[in-house]
Inverse folding.
């Protein structure tokens, strides 16, 4: 039987868990069988991984050496209870509750992400369908569901995003002039390229991939806070940009007007499936992840339908290995619960297949995984440096831990290779090419 007990304050001295706001974090599930299974999984993992685990009495276990990441268990019983009952969702909730800590949170998570496919011993993997929760049906990306899902993340507060984003307010991978994988721990960060400049370079490249210039009719699917629309309009393009976020739409409109480009760019609160008209180019930066796997065909069909023959798409998409994508398509996760409800990350194979089915061909593709890891590192550094501002906005300590975990968790995904982000140039065949095929 599972009994629920309130969780005590977490690792943060001031951590208080509001049970109405954080019901799954405030309550610790109790199941001896599941807790025992979790202890076995953890013990097996730390014997194999370059990781150290410290217990409250100071005992350190694990195959890791002195320079490998250290994970400190604050309340081992609660940690194993959450992990056993809710799997990786419980693992994240345990961090939110303060049941475990790490000075190098990204390092710990990178080790785990690097071994994601083998963390659970093979005999226990057979119980996956029984032990791992399914995706909630209420998060499906219908037109109504998409609005709700987007609002739960992007409408939190424009001021919250300002605490960690650069002045361009770009919430996607930047593109740095130097390869971030070459950075070392002793680098002079003050002398490095600013995140704002790297974000402008990213946007410029997406526009170049789409062939955007003076007079181009551009459709942007996923406005963000307006940086791409501003840059495209500044090139002389005529921009229609769509979003489902009220907060983003309002600020994007203000930024476009402030740039003196109100006559060249229009922001619409609109679902991508409801777009109309034809355009010379389409740009969409990290929006496909919010579409949902069941709607990927609709997404690529929309890209194709909105393009004139010979038109181009500048697409930036987060991807994951195909086998891991297939294994996780119907799985509920910590990210879906707390950060991106309704989200789904495609594989490169899926993008190639769905684009081709929609009549689009891939002209070029470029991986930017290391650039995203560096982007996320800088976001997390800024977020944690502005903890007081986040608190003043009304976000409690559990939220701050959740957001730090989300940023570190994402960075670890890119550092380990579990995730990637790819810039694509897609083309729609010209009328002559379509006729020759017909």
């Amino acid at each position: 039987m599972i009994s629920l007990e309130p969780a005590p304050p977490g690792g943060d001295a001031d951590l208080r868990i509001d049970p109405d706001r954080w019901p799954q974090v405030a309550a610790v599930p109790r199941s001896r069988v599941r807790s025992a299974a979790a202890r076995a999984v953890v013990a097996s993992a730390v014997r194999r991984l370059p990781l150290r685990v410290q217990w409250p009495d100071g005992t350190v276990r694990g195959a890791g050496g002195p320079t490998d990441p250290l994970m400190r268990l604050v309340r081992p019983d609660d940690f194993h209870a959450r992990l056993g009952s809710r799997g990786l969702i419980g693992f994240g909730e345990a961090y939110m509750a303060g049941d475990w800590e790490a000075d190098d949170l990204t390092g710990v998570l990178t080790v785990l992400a690097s071994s994601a496919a083998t963390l659970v011993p093979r005999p226990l993997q057979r119980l996956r369908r029984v032990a791992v929760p399914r995706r909630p049906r209420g998060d499906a990306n219908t037109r109504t569901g998409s609005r709700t899902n987007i609002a739960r993340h992007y409408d939190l507060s424009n001021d919250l995003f300002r605490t960690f984003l650069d002045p361009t307010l770009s919430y996607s991978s930047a593109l740095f002039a130097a390869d971030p994988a070459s950075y070392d721990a002793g680098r002079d960060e003050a002398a490095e390229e600013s995140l704002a400049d790297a974000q402008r370079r990213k946007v410029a490249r997406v526009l170049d991939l789409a062939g955007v210039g003076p007079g181009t009719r551009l459709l942007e699917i996923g406005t963000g806070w307006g940086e791409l629309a501003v840059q495209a309009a500044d090139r002389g393009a005529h921009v229609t940009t769509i979003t489902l976020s009220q907060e983003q739409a309002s600020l994007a409109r203000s930024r476009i007007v402030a740039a003196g480009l109100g006559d060249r760019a229009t922001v619409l609160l609109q679902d991508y499936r409801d777009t109309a008209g034809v355009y010379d180019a389409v740009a969409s930066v990290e929006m496909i992840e919010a579409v949902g796997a069941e709607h990927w065909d609709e997404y690529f069909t929309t890209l194709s339908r909105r393009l004139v023959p010979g038109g181009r798409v500048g697409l930036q998409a987060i991807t994951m290995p195909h086998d891991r994508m297939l294994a996780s398509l119907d799985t509920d996760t910590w990210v879906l619960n707390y950060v991106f409800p309704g989200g789904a990350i495609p594989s490169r194979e899926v993008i190639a297949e769905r684009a081709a089915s929609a009549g689009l061909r891939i002209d070029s593709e470029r991986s930017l995984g290391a650039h995203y890891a560096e982007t996320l590192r800088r976001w997390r550094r800024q977020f944690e440096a502005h903890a007081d501002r986040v608190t003043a906005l009304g976000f409690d300590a559990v939220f701050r831990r959740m957001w730090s975990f989300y940023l570190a968790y994402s960075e670890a995904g890119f550092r380990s290779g579990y995730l990637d982000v790819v810039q694509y140039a897609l083309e729609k065949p010209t009328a002559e090419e379509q006729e020759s095929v017909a």
Remarks:
- The two ends are 64 Å apart (CA to CA).
- The chain has two domains: 3-133, 143-437.
- The mean pLDDT is 91.
